[in-house]
Design brief:
This protein is of the alpha/beta class and 290 residues long. Helices cover 59% and strands 8% of the residues. The chain has 14 helices and five strands. Helix 3 packs across helix 6 and helix 4 (70-81) runs antiparallel to helix 5 (87-97).
Length: 290
């Protein structure tokens, strides 16, 4: 476990590091197992994006700038695990500048590399500390590429729609249900998901492919579940904008920053305003692309 704690001095996934600080200020400790859980979360979500083998046999898809070679994937896996915090990000940046599309960058280049260092972890070729750092670097890379993924996701002007959900473990669904009904009366198309577990919620949101998600949490004990959920959504849906609401935000508005949400609100009116602001921003982005 001491090996796990040692990575706090390096580049840990931002929401987990901030959640750790948030809990320690309140006299609570971050469970050591949370570090390994976070690393597995990134490996699971990004690794699933890879469709290994389906494209490598097609010569038309292996042209330079379109599909990475096995050697390039291995090089990226090495870079994500080594002592240089910037090595992996530099390789991804170079691939993007060489013309690799965002979908290929995510589903093949990064996802295959993540799958490889996950395999190294399982076979003891990479330490837990290396993989935890690697997961943090992947998260940071995907966060930096968010605008690129969003630009390619928005093929048409987005509508007034979002997914509202309770975080796993939340038993109070009345507030988010009222918020969903209120926004529907104002013309928004709101998909409401209440009471789902972590895995089911992540995959349901990925299936719905929203540009905006509103999460409701009521208690400080939900801090780590929220942080884990946001990490999963960031790596599964790199374009998504996330708003946190509920009693957890009312008790401490700073929690939204701690768990890497894009916005934190305490009532329906402020939530409606932030959603409208982001929708307007998306429409401006789409207009610039036209």
């Amino acid at each position: 476990m001491s090996e796990d704690h040692g990575v706090f001095s390096g580049q840990l996934v931002p929401p987990l590091l901030r959640a750790k600080d948030y809990m320690e200020r309140r006299g609570q400790a971050l469970p050591p197992a949370a570090l390994r859980l976070l690393a597995r979360e990134v490996i699971l979500r990004v690794g699933r994006a890879s469709d290994a083998g389906s494209w490598m046999s097609d010569p038309a898809l292996s042209r330079p700038g379109n599909r990475p070679s096995r050697a390039e994937i291995e090089l990226l896996a090495d870079a994500l695990l080594n002592q240089d915090d910037d090595a992996g990000a530099d390789l991804v940046r170079e691939a993007r500048q060489a013309g690799m599309p965002a979908e290929t960058l995510y589903h093949h280049y990064i996802a295959q590399a993540v799958r490889r260092f996950g395999e190294r972890w399982e076979s003891d070729e990479a330490t837990a500390a290396q993989v935890i750092l690697g997961a943090g670097r992947v998260y940071a890379i995907l966060r930096d590429l968010r605008s690129v993924f969003l630009a390619e996701h928005l093929v048409a002007p987005p509508g007034a729609e979002a997914v509202f959900a309770t975080v796993p473990g939340e038993v109070h669904g009345l507030g988010v249900t009222i918020a969903a009904d209120t926004m529907r009366l104002r013309g928004w198309d709101i998909s409401l998901r209440v009471g789902l577990g972590h895995e089911a919620l992540v995959e349901e949101i990925a299936r719905l492919r929203p540009t905006m998600v509103g999460l409701s949490a009521s208690l400080p004990s939900h801090t780590l579940p929220v942080a884990r959920l946001i990490v999963a959504l960031r790596v599964r849906c790199p374009h998504v904008w996330i708003m946190l609401a509920g009693g957890l935000v009312a008790q401490d508005p700073g929690i939204a920053v701690a768990v890497d949400a894009d916005a934190g609100v305490t009532d329906v009116e402020s939530g409606a305003a932030r959603l409208a602001e982001h929708l307007a921003e998306l429409n401006r982005l789409t207009a610039r692309q036209a």
